Amino acid sequence: MSRFANLEFGDEFKDQAQHTGALVKDEAYYLTEARSAFENGKFESALRLFSKVLEFNPKNAAAWAGQVRMLIEMGEYSEARLWADKALERFPREPELLAAKAVALGRSGDLQQALVFSDASIEERGDAPYVWLARADVLLACQEQRADYCFDKAMLLAPRDWFVSWLAGRIRLFYRQFALALKLLQQAIEWHAGHFLLWLEIGRCQTALGLVGSAELSFQQAQQLNPQCSEARQARAQLSRTGILKRILGWGRRVALR
To answer: Long-range CB contacts (< 8 A, 24+ apart) of 111-115?
Structure first.
């Protein structure tokens, strides 16, 4: 059984909101929590929270799109396509759903259909940053140079928005365009320097580019901003092991040359 099977539900949902003291845990509460989890890179938690939104309101198109996008972030492309199809039965012209399905198709290798759904999303709403980020994702899957224009378009539609810049950087990072990803993430840092996740992502790019010293500083900054960030702690430990190994290999080569 799929581990996402418990996301299935019928049209019935709770009439009464849950309460914890004076806090009302309703549709708006779970939508805010889901977006917060997304912004902190907690994709599986965000997935569950978007599902909670739909328990209150199955007609919330943003929550349906959020579920599909979280599945993509988790690398669950088959599940993302399945849930996109379910959502598009309800909202056949929802631009973010069309765009998200395009990404899932592109990353699964179905490039022709990915372009079809991406075209449809732009026709529905060409002023949405995510629609253009998704278009860039699909074009990179197709190895098209025109992806640069799409990234620029998304950034133009959301000026000085760290979140859009971060998402763009993650797409570049997925396609192993580390230097370009680093540039986008550095822009995001300019606008939101206190967010640990940006430093973590920058450290990953720097590591891939062989900038070990800079990566160590970035991971250290991420850990200072969020002491519970296990990814930063593990990355620093890996850098340390790599540094020790390089020193041992260097010592071995020097001995062999004597």
So the answer is: 111/138, 111/141, 111/142, 114/138, 114/141, 114/142, 115/142
